[in-house]
Please model this.
Amino acid sequence: MPDPIVAATLPGAQPTREAPDVAAAVAHLAQDGLVAFPTETVWGLAACARSSAAMNALRSWKGRDADQPVSLLIADAAVLAAEGLELSPLARRIIAAFWPGPLTLVIPARVIPAQAIPAQAIPADAALAAGVARDDGAVGVRCSSHPVAAALAGAAARAGLGPLTATSLNRSGQPPARDEAAARALCAGQRAPLVLDTGGDAVSAGPPTSVLDLTQDSPRILRVGAIDESTLRARVGVEVSSCDASTDPLAPACMKGEPTS
Model:
């Protein structure tokens, strides 16, 4: 019997159908709920990134400060232009080389972040919720290769919910969940995130995503994770610099707090 969970539409992919669990997860997200989902790295926590109520619920559950930016989960690179994010030729080469996969890209926005726009002027289906973007408007984005994460991102996009969050599934200061058993233990209790059922066989025990900042003249590594520094340098094709997270002004703005999934 074929696997009922299929990947979200990627370039060249066949049309998809959604598993019942994914459909239920999207319905839950539409009501500003939270959803725990597996990735090829650690487990992630999804909320609708355009919903202030959903983002408040996410920060409350995690115990996360409102000034900590939150990275996004998308189905494919075509979503980026719709969100007002600029893709340089270099960014397109990096996406072609590494996506879908465990690489988060910090991408500049050509629009003003929601927190700088009067509430009455924000279209309901456009701006990201306040605090999702970094102070300079840049946003961390990833496209997961895990079929469940990809299916969730694609189904949310088709439902008109916009991008989801890709933050790791953990309470602030605690390690992220690395398998379904840990995710279910963490999500027990009232008002806990809905956990996508993977049949118990989706082990996500790898390191978190590597993070590459593309907002400067040359790419900068903000965090080395699932993709090591030598691989990034070799496949990007340009000089890549590293930053000191303890002193670099951009690293804390993007990476302080819990890791992305």
Q: What stands out?
A: Residues 1-17, 116-125, 252-258 have pLDDT under 50 and may be disordered.
